[in-house]
Amino acid sequence: MTDLTPFADESSSSSIGKLTIENAGDRVSLYGSLDITRDQHGLDVARQLKALLDKTVGVLEASRSLPKQLPRSAEPARTANPFE
Description:
By secondary structure, this protein is α+β, with helices and mostly antiparallel strands.
């Protein structure tokens, strides 16, 4: 089970199978893939994911004021190709 505390820092990460969970102060990012199979292992994986999501929802619900939506991240600046 992951011991990651959602939104607690800018550097922690964890994984469940091939699913990576990265923490940041303003977001929790999930990427990769996760197979939840119909067996005991699948049940364990599903419980780990549920525990992480329950913890994330708990932190969000405990927040006194949440913005409607975070501002979009700025697009990276484009630079001229030096080889053209």
